Amino acid sequence: MLQANKQVAIVTGGGSGIGLAIAAKYVGQGIHTIIIGRDNDKLEKARQELGTLCYPIVHDLSDLSSIPALINNIMTTHGQIDILVNNAGINMKKDFITTTDEDFQQIIHTNLIAVFVLSREVIKQMQLRKSGCIIHISSMAAQYGMPRVIAYSASKSAIDGMTRAMAVELSGQGIRINAIAPGFIETAMTATALNSDPERKQKALSRTPMGHMGKPENIADAALFLASDSAAYITGVILPVDGGNSIGF
Which family does it belong to (predicted)? Predict the structure, then answer.
């Protein structure tokens, strides 16, 4: 049932890392937060940590045909969707010439097409109320060239373009669309990418003016701001939260 003072958020990939930090920030502000992921254990642990305003749903968003029913079920249960954070994503580090068609398609399918389908189905509900906020999670890989992540870079660059196109088309209907481009953040995914490659890690830190990696909470703070009334006149923005990495020398 729709409640005037109630807010409902969906955070994909909400069981760990940046997604979990965003979910925790939203729950802390009294926002009913649905976290979606594929790992039941991670989601259940998050629910225990975050409490009664956290609602885990085990779902594989790469199954595109299942997404409309997923959103219908959420609407039936919660009555509204005010915020969608498209955080779920995968990475793959491979040389350009060894990246197969299947590798490339897998990354694009998960990081881009699933985001498009989920956003489309959520927006159908937001349009009925002429209100809503969608936040995509982009990447430094869309800000400048990075080696060995060609598919990931392509997917995140497309997310930036989609953010702007969606904002132009939907903002007049009361639906704001923005993105956050995290720099190098202390998460399991980043650790996997950097700890086995000391040279890459040093390069990442050396071009970050603040001189250290960020924390998931830094991204969560930005996601809370962009979803709040304080950002009521902000749409179509890709906000770097990166310690200056994107402008570093």
Answer: Belongs to the short-chain dehydrogenases/reductases (SDR) family.
